[in-house]
Design goal:
Number of domains of chain B: 2
Strand order of the largest sheet of chain A: 2-3-4-5
Strand content of chain A: 25-35%
Shape of chain B: rod-shaped
Structural class of chain A: alpha+beta
Strand content of chain B: 25-35%
Number of helices of chain A: 1
Strand order of the largest sheet of chain B: 3-6-7-4-5
Shape of chain A: rod-shaped
Helix content of chain B: 25-40%
Number of strands of chain A: 7
Number of helices of chain B: 6
Structural class of chain B: alpha+beta
Radius of gyration of chain A: 25 Å
Largest interface: A-B, 34 and 39 residues
Distance between the termini of chain A: 89 Å
Oligomer: heterodimer
Amino acid sequence: MVRKINKRGGLLNQVIVHVVLIGIILGLFLFATAGKINARGVRQQVLEKEIALLIDVAVPGMSFEISKENRDGLVSEVELSRGNIFITVDGLRSAKGYPYFSKYAVSVEEEDDKFIVRIR
Amino acid sequence: MSNTLRLPVAGCRLPVLGKRGALGEWVVTLYRLLVVSFVAFIILGVSSVFYAHYIDVRDAEAVVMTRQVVDCVAPFGIVDMGVFSGDDKKGILSYCGFDDAEVERFFVRVVVLEALPLERTSSSLEPSALEMKKVGEMYQGDSGALWVLKIFGDVDKVEEGLKKYEPGYSKLNYFVGVLDRGIEMDGKIEVEVLVSNEF
């Protein structure tokens, strides 16, 4: 009889250990993915939309700088392609970019520690 | 019977495990954990790629576009009706110099209204008090997008996931001078801009 109770207790313990371990693994994955991928994505989105809006309102002769060591992360690439702006933040490449609209010619130049967007 | 154990509640038989059996059970447990981890990794990894907090700037874009169009249509506050007299009234953004590919998300409509001559003779009236008549219209883009805006307007509460499909919208009036066949009159322009989503 004593042995039977021990076995039931053992099963219960096993289930609890399973649940706890699965919970820990899910939690780790959740924090890891949300923390790294999602946060970078949001910061990238913020930066792309800020720059797109600046381009929208800019007039010829204007230029603005994007520091590589930006508060939104390390900016390693700024690219303009088919009316979209793509910014790589903390190594995360932009998949879709964000569309801007301008009547003027827009270009990007890279310097040592910054990117310069020029409106001509 | 010597190798099995009957549980009083469930009434089922479980094997009584020796040391080797217990080790095998932990191997199975480890295997299960690995499978669960793998599935969790796939689900969370894929969902994190597709789910991201959406920051909506389309209302701001609509206002920016409104100002750009007003600057184009009424430079120095005067609308030249010669611009609106052509047969092709569908290309206001092209007329203003925008690349079609860059503005395909936009629907823009510009309506020009002119003060009625009778009212205009009363010089004490403010422009906003004048009775106006429509004298010209230009637009560009898919007017069907207005239906999407209407649907969102009719629904009281929109689910968070659907909110990003609600278009950005701006409708502003500007009081201007209207130059028609060499005569300048009081008038106004109504500029309506709708920005669809970029997906």
